[in-house]
Amino acid sequence: MQKCNLAVDIGASSGRVIAGYLANGKLKLDEIHRFDNGMEMKNGHLCWDIDGLYQELVIGLRKSVQKNYQPTTIGIDTWAVDFVLLDKEKNRITDFVAYRDHRTDGVMDDILKILDRRKLYQQTGIQFQPFNTIYQLYAFKKENPELMEKAKHFLMIPDYLNYLLTGTLSNEYTNATSTQLLSANSKTWNQSIAEALDIPLELFLEPKMPMQTLGYLKPELQKDIGFDVKVVLPGTHDTASAVVAVPNDESIYISSGTWSLIGVEHDTPITSEQAMRYNFTNEGGVYENIRFLKNIMGMWMIQEVKKELKDQYSFQEFVDLAYQLKAFDSIVDVNDERFLSPKSMIHSIQTFCQETNQAIPHSPAELAVCIFNSLVKSYQQAVKEIEEMTGKKYASINIIGGGSKNQYMNEQLAKATGKAVYTGPTEATAIGNLIAQMHTTGEIDSRETSKLMINRSFEIQKYLIRGEKNEYQR
Ligand code: LRH
How far is the C-alpha of 95 from the C-alpha of 324, rounded, in Å? Predict the structure, then answer.
């Protein structure tokens, strides 16, 4: 039997259970189980199927044993901001409403009439996004005052899954920062913000730092699996885990998936006027540092177009179509709120182009080029902003995550920024999750060792502009 650590990495469109172990100085990955995820309408709101996700997680655990692994630890990461509330008996009293649900429409503006925008940013360091937990909690309270009265515990998705595994309640730090309710400097829940919004502070537990053991599988699960598996906290926010797997500290990173998260790591929060204006965020990092980054709409746009076109084209086919199209220049502002949760992504893109007097994309190739070029434009702008705010010039950009397979965008980004563009690892989130588990068990002793390990274990590709001809070397 091979001992392993298990990473449970659940994104907005799919989840994975991945076994990881060290062999000959390299980190080996084995995907044990993969499943779909998505939102569905329930009680008038877009929700996640949290019970279904938990079942898939347990299936993954069982499969690992069937594949002859002995899991010693398990760690969970998912997307941020979403939560459930439990009553005093620790029973769930809310659905797992998804952040793209329209319950938060207009709520940020309402809150910014109560709280001063600048103060809120200075205290939390978190970027203004209409779906942050703070706005969701406020919307929930307005719609369900009687349930809010009953609520005793606030858990984010990984916290809740950890609770189901172990029976232990916790609020993990990296994910908690995405609520916009934590003080960036003290790393504790911000009393004055909670009080101003009448959100009871008793709902929250003192944030727990990643890289520590939370507990063990509940006895019935232990019996089922046959092993005493330790439940460990990685960066439970998927982006926090992904950033751990950035191969090179000197690059700007882009974690490319449903969202594109572009930024750098920093020792302390940057909450300047400029950072607020550029809407950058200071989320908590696994190494207790800061992920100074910006959320950019990301592959969600092409995922939605793909779905609308009845999955006739794969992602790679969209990339191929983009290469074949000679020129199509229309650009949309990918961070326009209309693209967050539209009825039709295609229609929203087309109306944006129409309103801005640009050619309207109709064919799948035109839509793909419009989305890819618009994303690249927005990355290019963010790179400029990062350099301006940190006062540093970066020679390279490293794209991690599944979206790094988009060669068209990688080449366009190299061309637009003149920087070397590195891509990989594609499984960054699971890798970062596993590394945090290995730090906890002592299998990896330092951040430096983990960086060496990543570079040794995974293929990193390089796109570079060569001379005048804009040729790329791979
Ligand atoms: C990426 C992500 C991102 C959040 C968003 C809700 O999966 O966690 O960091 O802002 O989802």
Answer: 45
